[in-house]
Specification:
Layout lengths: L2 H6 L13 H7 L5 E6 L20 H18 L11 E5 L6 H10 L6 E5 L6 H9 L4 E7 L3 H7 L5 H11 L5 E8 L5 H17 L3 E6 L15 H17 L3 E2 L4 E3 L14 E4 L4 E3 L3 E5 L3 H9 L5 E6 L1 H15 L2 E2 L9 H15 L12 E2 L2 H32 L16 H9 L5
Parallel strand pairs: 1-2, 1-9, 2-3, 3-4, 4-5, 5-6
Antiparallel strand pairs: 6-8, 7-8, 10-11, 11-12, 13-14
Helix pairs in contact: 3-4, 3-10, 8-9, 11-12, 13-14
Length: 438
């Protein structure tokens, strides 16, 4: 029996889902799900990038996509897509556009009602390849530009140059409903880069992209870039100037790190309210539960081939933790909308109290007619700092432990040094909580 058959065979009676079955995962979801698909392969590794990625072995991509297809079919058979399809589809990596022919069957197995988005390497964003992506149903692309400076790209060791970055955006604009450009902000590199970053931002506006995502460089301890202190004040100054330039060019600050045309949708993956992660290194958020798949490619394939879900960790957030997670990402989008008064739910009471405290502290503006409160400039700065704190205290230690799976299976992820990751006391508590069985 195929891997897809073994997984599907575990969901014949969705009314009685077994522990560790796709039906059990679907049962945990408290609302419609989007889908996130992770492709962990890169032809060349960018050392600043902390995401799960490997240089593939011979024959490994074919086996990986077979397992990915089996995982997708197992969840669809269990009803994860609902009656109308997943609310959205996002494909990330790695380099998702490295093996488009192998990805195609996975896409065909996932019914999707909303937008379909994919990350694209600039050197892959030729007119023909973008037309192929459009033909596969993608309505949105995120181009990993990072910079239009060859000096900065060399610093980041990106596999493309500034000319390819410019041409990629020019080729994408007009072909898709939404074009996002990723830029890296690294004020630690040198003072000149801050000016380069702002010039890059204006270049994106001039090229007519719908969104610019301006990520600060996260110096994960397990990457070759390693840990470093961050100049918070300088980052706040640069992002404040970016906000001014955005308004000058007809864009708005849609979230802590993104700038959009006022009439454009947002390119976002994990800030979706509920999502199901597929593939090695993918995560799922189901409302009260956060799940993480195995990072090791061979470990992932072996689990699916054996008819098991490739889940490595589960964090049960509960009645208060789940809504708090929702509130965290609401605030990232620049607005916090707590439930109206009269709701006796403890989570609603908690979020209203948090909103009141943040308003009193000058982080949120007073509530508007819809009951929502917008982040103030000071609020954006503090949330920028909070996002980094969460990243280093929770995400870095989790991912470093998951990346160790590559070494245990002889994988080609030598860029990562899990033993060098930050691990603070809070992680010891979270680590114990994430080992809860499904």
């Amino acid at each position: 029996m195929s891997a897809a058959g073994r997984l599907a065979g575990r969901v014949r009676d969705p009314a009685e889902p077994s522990a560790g079955s796709p039906a059990r995962v679907v049962e945990l979801a408290d609302g419609p799900l989007g889908a996130y698909v992770h492709v962990p392969f890169c032809a060349r590794v960018c050392p600043f990038c902390p995401y799960n990625k490997v240089i593939p072995r011979a024959g490994q991509p074919e086996r990986y996509f077979e397992a990915l297809l089996a995982e997708a079919r197992g969840y669809v058979a269990a009803g994860a897509a609902g009656a109308t399809g997943f609310t959205s589809l996002y494909v990330g990596g790695g380099t998702p556009t490295l093996f488009p022919d192998l990805l195609r069957p996975v896409l065909q197995a996932l019914p999707v009602a909303g937008e379909r988005a994919i990350e694209v390497l600039p050197s892959h964003a030729t007119p023909d390849r973008l037309d192929d992506l459009r033909g596969l149903g993608f309505t949105a692309v995120s181009i990993g530009v990072q910079s239009f400076s060859d000096e900065v790209l060399h610093h980041l060791r990106r596999p493309h140059d500034a000319r390819q970055a410019r041409e990629a955006l020019a080729n994408a604009v007009g072909r898709f409903d939404l074009v996002d450009a990723d830029l890296i902000l690294d004020v630690e590199y040198d003072d000149a880069h801050a000016g380069t970053f702002l010039r890059d931002l204006v270049r994106c506006f001039d090229l007519g992209v719908d969104q610019v995502s301006t990520y600060p460089l996260m110096r994960f301890g397990y990457t070759p870039f390693g840990p470093a202190t961050h100049d918070r004040r300088r980052e706040h100054e640069v992002l404040s100037e970016a906000t001014r330039l955005a308004a000058e060019h007809g864009y708005e600050r849609r979230s802590v790190w993104t700038f959009n045309r006022p009439d454009s949708p947002s390119y976002t993956s994990i800030t979706r309210r509920r999502f199901l992660g597929l593939g090695a290194g993918a995560s799922s958020f189901l409302g009260r539960d956060f799940l993480v798949n195995h990072f090791g490619v061979e470990t992932y394939i072996a689990a699916v081939d054996a008819g098991r879900l490739p889940l490595a960790r589960r964090l049960h957030l509960g009645r208060l933790g789940g809504p708090s997670y929702d509130g965290f990402w609401q605030a990232y989008s620049g607005r916090l909308c707590p439930p109206a008064r009269g709701s006796g739910e403890p989570a609603g009471i908690l979020l209203r109290a948090a909103a009141a405290v943040m308003t009193a502290g000058g982080l949120l503006a007073p509530a508007g007619p819809d009951g929502c409160r917008a982040l103030t400039p000071r609020g954006f700065d503090r949330y920028h700092d909070l996002e980094r704190w969460v990243t280093y205290h929770l995400i870095e230690p989790l991912w470093s432990e998951m990346l160790a799976e590559h070494a245990s299976e002889g994988g080609r992820a030598g860029w990562a040094a899990p033993e060098s990751a930050r691990r603070r006391r809070l992680w010891n508590v979270v680590d114990a909580l994430t080992r809860r069985p499904l």
